[in-house]
Amino acid sequence: MSISKIAVYGAGSWGITLSRLLHENGYQVKIWEYSPEVVQEILAIREHSKVLPGVTLDDEILVTNDIAEATEDVDMVLVVVPSHTVRQTLEMAKPYIPQDRIITIASKGIETTTLKRMSEVVSEVLGNSDRICTFYGPSHAEEVSRRIPTVIVAASSNHQVAKEVQNTFMVHYMRVYTNPDVIGVELGGSLKNIIAIAAGGVDGLGYGDNTKGALLARGLMEMMRLGVKMGAEQSTFMGISGLGDLVTTCMSKHSRNRYVGECLGRGMKLPEILANLTMVAEGVNTTKAGYLLAQKYEVDLPITNEVYKALYEDKDARQVIRDLMTREAKPEFDSHKEIYNTG
Question: Is pTM beyond 0.70 here?
């Protein structure tokens, strides 16, 4: 099936940005948005001023609150709603999505109630697991909407589907790679948000580059440790959706997750922080999921555990850093334990 018409679920900053890109690339685009107020604003001024001011949508792009209208006669569905609403959104859309349609997921996160990755949620609801592709990478909408060069990974167990998605999104300012390791790409793009909260905490506390560099290195190690235990390839975490997304999210002024951590470092409490956000910080829910996955798979994730305590148990950010720094001394890599023990 050749792709010509695409439904985009979600008119947040990333949904709007990708819709513009796809329209520029010659595709017919229809956006479904849950909020009638957001739909009305976009119809009136062709932008969502709250999340991406100044970025306008072409009049040819349909924007609707009717998910059936948005989904009718499309070849691909692009899911860009917050991760905790993916299941509900797809359950509403299911009657209108034929089994042979490609479902591309740009929503990053892990479902806290089931601990399922987004592709697992999609497969569970729609049942067409060989038509699912994950679309992750370091990609702030604020930059992509300005056509700043960006690289993304299209991950699918079906190589032909990954290639279709790759070809659909490739433009002069977005390069897309394919990857068969769906588990690794999804975990990389999700778990890095936990480390980004910790990185924000470092900034909020006024610590420096030494601390941030160490955090990124050890955070990447945690992502690898859990990912490999869950069936991912270790090399994926050194790629675009692993190291690339980790560095971007931990360093960027655009990162909502880093901002949450910065506020924690300054002494603010989570309810107050979330009340001031205009968009979802996926890392807050992902931290809970990561904490539970660590227990399920019996993996040591000290940074994740401490971020969880800061978010959900009101632990002081300075004490979080102190407790991480004063843990039992050990070799840098688990593989070194055997070397030292044997000689």
Answer: yes
